[in-house]
Amino acid sequence: DRIFDTYIDRKMKPFVEIGFMPEALSTHPEPYRHHWSAGGSNKLETGWAYPPKDFKKWAELIHQWVKHSIERYGKAEVESWYWELWNEPDIMYFMSPDKVTDYCKMYDYASDAVKRALPTARIGGPHTTGGGAWFLRSFIRHCLSDTNAATGKIGAPLDFVVFHAKGSPEIVNGVVRMGMKAQLNSIKDNFSVITSFAEIKNLPV
Asked: How much is the pTM?
C-alpha cells in the first residue's frame, strides 16, 4: 500500500504487474528466495518463478487485491491503471514444463479475477522479452480463440499487448554498450506478430 500510495500522491499511474508467485502458493516453494551478486554463482529461478499449486486460491488473491485497490483509491482511479500478468515469462522468470500453456492458464484466471472485481479494468500481457515473439504469437492466439481455463468460454480479455525489447549488451572499455541492432530487430519481430492479428489492430501496444 505504501508503494501505491506514493504513486498516487505524486499523480502517477501504476502499471500493475501481477507477479511473482507467493511462497505459500508456489508449486516449488523451496528454495523461495533468490540470490544474486555481481560475478557470483547466481540462482534466480527459485520458488517465486513457478505457477500456483492452486489456481483458484491464486485467483482469489488477485480478486481481493483489485477490490482492495478500489476501496483504497476509488473505482475511477483504478480504472485508469493497466494490469499485466508477470514479466518475461518466455525466459527463466517463469519456470514451467510448458511455458505457453501454463502462462495462458494463469492469464485466464488472473484476467477473470481482475474483471470480476472491476469489469472496466484493463488487463493485458504477456510482457515477453527480446526474443519472445514466438511466445507472444501463441498468447494472442489463445486470447482470441482458445478455451478459457477459468470460465470455460472461448477467449480471454485482452485490453492491451505488451513486450519489451533488449539489445545484446557488451562491456567496452568498462562501459556497458547496448546492441541497437538486436533491439530494433526484436521490435520489428514483435510488431510483425501483433499486426498479423487483425482482431487486435486497435489495441494499445
From this structure: 0.93
